[in-house]
Design goal:
Elements: H1 9-18, E1 25-29, E2 42-43, E3 53-54, E4 58-61, H2 63-66, E5 75-82, E6 97-101, E7 113-116, E8 120-123, E9 126-129, E10 139-140, E11 151-153, H3 161-169, E12 174-178, E13 183-188, E14 192-193, E15 204-205, H4 208-217, E16 223-228, H5 232-240, E17 248-252, H6 263-270, E18 272-276, E19 280-281, E20 287-291, E21 294-299, H7 303-320, E22 331-335, E23 346-353, E24 357-361, H8 370-374, E25 377-381, E26 393-398
Helix pairs in contact: 4-7, 5-6
The chain binds ligand LQZAQKY5 and molybdate ion (MOO).
GO molecular function: molybdopterin molybdotransferase activity
EC number: 2.10.1.1
Domain MoaB/Mog: 184-320
Length: 406
């Protein structure tokens, strides 16, 4: 299949969108919910804190009993009970009395403030106080954080650590979230070997396995990795054996046009190729197809092209499977470099950007993985532009903003 007709990036996105699958929900343990996406709104089952809670170690008192007390005017209260966090007192504080409390203890009946321990000296049952508190001081009132019945999270929220804690405080040990796509990565190429082996002539280290795995991990996704030789029958079987079990198949390699580049033809044979070849750089030979209703993303073998294709076309689709609309923030910067580009093609130039400007463009070959380490951003050149002049304002996206757990 020749790569003579390229579709525009917007057209590629439109076709992906038309073939977008959104997964069902599932109920999972809250501890496993990091970076998962809520399927429904969540309403709190409890007030939090569930009772008026002491915010300090000290003594629950009637604030009015402490007024005017100071180091020069020490007053004496009677300690009638002592409790820690997790305990409560049956007693009621009357005028002139105090109950020792810990941070987190329920404030005993009758008390309306907590005097910090530092302002007291206890002497048996007597409590000398040399400080004053106002009513409600050092008390976290019931429901201060969340109220019973309150909507604490909206559906489609991506769960981070703080949301996990909020859901727990609302009384839930489980969460209903979108299923996350199970991804099968099939790296193709006869020349590929694992790192660590002594390289024989014409062998190439399989780095895509690691870059693509890392990109999936940054979205909280797990991946099953396989390798196929450039053998039509082997690849066909691997694809067909994956469509039942996996929600998405990603391949790398074999997207160009030479003899060993079989991936596109194999997908055409066992399913349908919806497009092959997009007017983007890097990553022009990107292909997308469907086999037994399973979407197949065909990335290039070149490591930088594969990463670029993932960034421009795959990530958005995978997130939308969990109903997340993801728009990484673009920043405006002054370009301190002149960069050529061709009309009709959208370029994602590897760039090193500071808070003000783009300092370097790493417009190197798509095999130069080091350029992705040296760059920190993509500078985007629109298809309607022919190059960027020095001093021009451009748009960039920082790599780290492409990760969900940024
Ligand atoms: N005549 C043409 N040749 C090429 C075209 C074209 O339009 N006409 N497009 C070029 C572009 S652009 C790209 S991008 C590449 C895409 O190539 P393939 O997807 O077919 O990739 P391979 O040929 O399998 O490999 C390319 C290169 O990358 C190395 N490789 C492959 N897999 C891995 C891996 N898992 N880890 C690390 N490196 C890998 C491979 O050894 C090759 O060196 O095609 C251009 N050619
Ligand atoms: O798309 Mo290729 O990445 O330009 O080398």
């Amino acid at each position: 299949m020749f790569l003579t007709e390229l579709i525009k990036l917007s057209e590629a996105k439109r076709i992906l969108n038309e073939n977008q699958i959104i997964l069902d929900g599932e109920i999972i343990d809250l501890k496993d919910s990091y970076l998962r996406v809520l399927k429904d709104d969540i309403y709190s089952k409890h007030d939090s804190p569930p009772f008026d809670k002491s915010a300090m170690d000290g003594y629950a008192v009637i604030a009015e009993d402490t007024f005017t007390s100071s180091p020069n005017n020490i007053k004496v209260l009677k300690i009638i009970d002592r409790i820690g966090a997790g305990n409560y007192s049956e007693k009621t504080i009357e005028k002139g009395e105090a109950i020792k409390v810990a941070t987190g203890s329920p404030v005993p009946k009758g008390g309306n403030a907590v005097l910090m321990e530092e302002y007291t000296i206890s002497n048996g049952e007597n409590l000398e106080i040399h400080g004053a508190v106002t009513p409600s001081e050092n008390i976290a009132p019931q429901g201060e954080d969340i109220k019973v019945g309150e909507k604490i999270l909206e559906k489609n929220t991506i769960l981070r650590s703080q949301e996990m804690g909020l859901i727990a405080s609302g009384g839930y040990g489980k969460a209903e979230v979108y299923k996350k796509p199970l991804v099968k990565l099939i790296v193709t190429g006869n020349e590929l070997v694992e790192p660590g082996s002594t390289l024989k002539k014409a062998e190439v280290i399989n780095s895509n396995k690691f870059t693509i795995t890392g990109m999936l991990k940054s979205l909280g996704l797990d991946v099953e990795i396989d390798h196929s030789h450039d053998e039509i029958q082997e690849l066909k079987e691997k694809i067909l054996n994956s469509t039942d079990e996996y929600d998405v198949i990603i391949t790398t390699g074999g997207t160009a046009i030479s003899k060993g580049d079989i991936v596109i033809d194999v997908i055409e044979d066992v399913g349908e190729v919806l497009f092959h070849g997009v007017a983007i750089r890097p990553g022009k030979p990107f292909g997308f197809g469907v086999v037994n209703k399973t979407p197949v993303f065909m990335l290039s073998g070149y490591p930088v092209a594969a990463m670029g294709q993932f960034d421009t076309l795959v990530r958005e689709y995978l997130l939308k499977m969990q109903n997340i609309t993801f728009n990484p923030k673009k920043h405006k910067r002054i370009s301190n470099v002149k960069i050529p580009s061709s009309l009709g093609r959208t370029d994602f130039v590897r760039a090193y950007s500071t808070d003000e400007s783009v300092e370097h463009a790493l417009n190197k070959g798509s095999g130069i993985i080091k350029s992705m380490v040296e760059a920190n951003s993509y500078l985007i050149i629109d298809e309607n532009k022919e190059g960027i002049e020095k001093g021009e304002t451009v748009e960039i996206i920082y790599f780290e903003l492409l990760n969900l757990n940024k």
